[in-house]
Amino acid sequence: MKNLRFNTFPLPGVKCASLLCISTDGRYFSSLGIFPPFSHTDDVIFSSVYILIAVSALLLSFLGAMANVETKISANNNKKLVCYYFASGLLQVTEIDPFLCTHLIFAFAMFKHGKLTEVSPSDIKLFGQMANLKLKNPALKVMLSVQNGFSELVNSDDATIKKFYNQAIHYLREYRFDGIDLDWEFPRANEKEKYSRFLKGFRDAIINHSQNSLRPQLLLTAALPNNVRKLQNYDIDTLNSTLDFATVMAYDFHMFIKNADITTGFNSPLFPPANEKKIYSTVGLMDYYLNTGFSSSKLLVGLPTYGRTWKLKTAENHGVHAPAVNKGDPGPVIHRRGVFTYPEVCSALKNGSHYVWDSEAEVPYLYNDLLWCSFEDPESAANKAKYFLQKCGGVGVWTITFDDAEGKYSNDSQKFPIITAVKKVLMGADNKDSSPVSQPVL
């Protein structure tokens, strides 16, 4: 090896062999990333360099696969477990298990003046921390979700939109994201065609970038509404042809019920409760999506790690559809009226709240004095994952931030108990076991 010299392979265009591709500027592309250009000389010894890099890549890939063999969700079924990370300070990026989810999506960035940009300068540091999770699990896909600024962008002229595509792709690459998630809530009827054009153009730009850079295509995904009337403002054929996958936000159903703020109800029932329409349930909504012709492998069923709370009118009337005065008082974690994170749910249960499992809706609720809360727990989340295991492409979770990150509230001290329960189903470990997974401490 003493005669080995690292020099450029003087090759017009680009050639690839197995794990290695070489571009005209001397960059080496492999599954490990990009090697820097080498200096130009007339004396080239390439074969040994290629063998060394290829064998090293194979070895590292093998070691990575072995390290991940017990935690890989997609080993047999390619099911996705997509976890949104809400940057609120409740959960540090560095506390996230990089093997828990197949995809981790940072929420949120925004479109502003025709550009993709961060909401806060402090988000840049979090971008880096999230990308660094891939150093531990190279199979993890890290993405950036955008929520604001859509209407201004899609109504811009063609030149502005084309410029945006290039800027957005560069931005995603700069911060080492594997793709972008579009969470537009929601297009208006007169924006349906414009959004379709935007998606088609974005997909074309992603393909062109991949071909020119010899890098994998960036992922293009979306979050879709829990309201079928709003879904009419999306073109299903365009979604099917442009998106890699889409998460259906199958929660916040009770908001469509008359007098929702003063009547208790389920946030995300699997099946419709009595006297409510089927479409206001996870099964009803997902069936509707599937009947539109949406590709089942691209559809992910969304589930929440948070609960919705109410302040009851009287402590004696505490059932489903009981009269309430208003949304529930703020909890001790996020201090937000009408919302409990899963740790807040578990704290309420530990402090004397009554746990009730509704066998009709297949979800739990709790009550205590004037407090009433509909929530997701590991058992209900696992049941949803089982029901849709053969019907959809996986599960999308809003949000990993609201799960029990430290495992303080489950019997076996399981960290992220709701997401872990879903993961066990997707891995196949829990498909034959109907027993509850990581039940809350009562």
From TrEMBL:
Cellular compartments per GO CC: extracellular region
Q: Which GO terms of the molecular function aspect are on file?
A: chitin binding; chitinase activity
KW Flavoprotein (keyword) present = no
* Gene Ontology process terms (BP): carbohydrate metabolic process; chitin catabolic process
Question: GH18 domain spans which residues?
Answer: 79-429
Specify the signal sequence span.
Answer: none
**What's the protein name?**
Chitotriosidase-1 isoform X1
**In which organism is this protein found?**
Octopus sinensis
